[in-house]
Amino acid sequence: MLKDIKTIIWDWNGTLLNDVDACVESINVLLEARQLPLMNRLRYKTLFGFPVQRYYEEIGFDFTREPYDVVAFEFMDEYLSRLPELQLHSDVIPVLNYFKLNHYTQAVLSAMEQQTLNRSLAEKGISSYFSVIMGIQDHFAEGKIENGRKIIRELNIAPENALLIGDTIHDHEVASEIGCNCILVADGHQSPDRLRVTGRTVVEDLFELIGRPLG
To answer: Measured between alpha carbons, how far is 36 from 18 in angstroms, rounded to an integer?
Structure first.
C-alpha cells in the first residue's frame, strides 16, 4: 500500500498511551466546578480537537471570564495526577516489536511536555524502541508540526520515507505539513467518522498494522 517506508513516527497520547478516559475524567472535574455540561466518552471523541483552546470554548468555557492559561494548567494538574496509572493500549508492545524486528526506525512525536514524555515512556518500559523522542517545551500542546520537521532532520530521512501513525485529524495535518505518509487509529481521541473525512487510511486498532505492506 505504501512504498519505501523506512521510519515510523508515533503519536503518543491516544495512539500508544490509552488515556482517553483520563482526559474525560479530568475535563469533567473542570466542567463540574463551572456548572457546565459533563462529557462522556462519545461526546469527547466527537468534539475534541486542536487547537485545544477552540475545543474548550466549544464545550462551554468562557475565556472572557477567565484566562485560557488558568484552565489549561488546571486540566494538566488533573491529567498528570492520573498519568502514572495509565496503561499502553494492549497491542502496543507486539506492534513495536514487529516494526523493530522488521528493521524500521521508530520515533515518538508528541504534544506532551518533553520531560513528562520522557518519564512516561521510561515508566512504560518502551523508551528503547525509539531513536528520537520529541515532545514540546510546555503543557500547551502546540508546536507539533515544527517538531515533526525536526525529527525528519535528526534522522536525515526523506519525508516520503516516513509514516506518521496518530489518532487525530491534527496528526493528518502534521503529516501533510511535513510531507510524510499517515495512518490514523480509531481507538484514540477522535471518532472514526471524523478521521475518515481526512481521506487517510483509518484502522480500528494497532493490530491492523501488522502485516500491512508498508514498503
So the answer is: 26
Cis preceding-peptide flag for 37 (omega within 30 of 0): no
209 C-beta neighbours (distance < 10 Å), count: 19
Longest dimension (CA), the chain: 53
DSSP 39: P
The 10 Å Cβ neighbour count of residue 195 is 26
pLDDT tens digits, 187-214:
999 999 999 999 999 999 999 988 766 6
The pLDDT, as a whole number, for residue 143 is: 76
Angle between helices 68-82 and 20-33 (to 10 degrees): 130
Classify domain 7-18+87-209 at the CATH superfamily level: HAD superfamily/HAD-like (3.40.50.1000)
Domain ranges of the chain: 7-18+87-209, 20-85
Q: Which helix (H) or strand (E) holds 7?
A: strand 7-10
pTM: 0.94
